[in-house]
Amino acid sequence: MIEGLSVTLTHYLIVGAVIFGFGTVIALSKRNAVAVLMGVELMLNAVNLTLVAFSRFSSAFPQGEEPLAGHVFVVFVLTVAAAEAAVALAMAVLVYRQRETVDLDRINLLHG
Amino acid sequence: MESPGIILAFWVLSAITVAGCAMVLVAKNLVHALVFLVLAFLGMAGLFLTLSADFIAVAQVLIYAGSIAVLMVFAIMLTPLAARDNANSLYLLPALASGLGIAAIVSFVALVTPWGELQGDALAQNDPPTTVAIIGDLLLGRYVLAFEVASILLFFALLGAIVLVQERGSRESQ
User: Fold this and answer.
1) Which of A25, A39, A40, A86 lies at 20 to 30 Å from A80 by C-alpha?
2) In the Cβ-directed half-sphere of B108, how many Cα atoms lie within 13 Å?
3) ipTM confidence
4) Which B residues 35-74 touch A at CB under 8 Å?
């Protein structure tokens, strides 16, 4: 029975879409700045899954012409995600020092 | 992609990853949410393995499940008086609507588009024995400019993070 099922590109795209949706909900609805960052990381991760799936299944490039370009994109996304996490968490700690909270609903002043 | 083991692995790992994401959303404690986030990252690394992306899977475990999770633990521990209840803001319903909408639209597009993907033997033939050598060639060959820009970006991000959280002199903090 299980031989009849085959995992195709569409399966991976749907999993990526569901994870991206969860990431969106978390990023938009959480109060704590760290939880919002978790949602952003999940969204980036879903995009990575989509890139790798396209790189594996795509027949757009003939063999050997553009091998694994999607993997290289994912490496860059990982780099930018790490940089973004470091800066965002530093900002959360900075805001906490000023206001003693990281509740985004209560951080509503532009001046220090 | 035809072997039963891969198919089973795909479904199990997808279930783990999606369940981890759902638990991040509904967990009552921020630290618990972080643990479920690490679970989702590990499931995602397994999904990368089912796509024969060995380097990406290892990098995922190292960077996401390792360093980003530790960074988040530090951020939680450095904000001791902040609420830890992982509460939702007023915007839960709009957020749910937009998340559901995005997932539904992308899934619909993925279902109705004829992707022209590789299948079966062609897929297996296309798989390199290891992706590391090819990725290394591309990073230092075709994409070397982007590689250098990424290294500069990482350098300035770390520099910025250090400058941001640096303790000012004692006169200023009084």
Assistant:
1) A25
2) 6
3) 0.89
4) 37, 40-41, 44, 47-48, 50-53, 55-56, 59-60, 63-64, 67-68, 71-72, 74
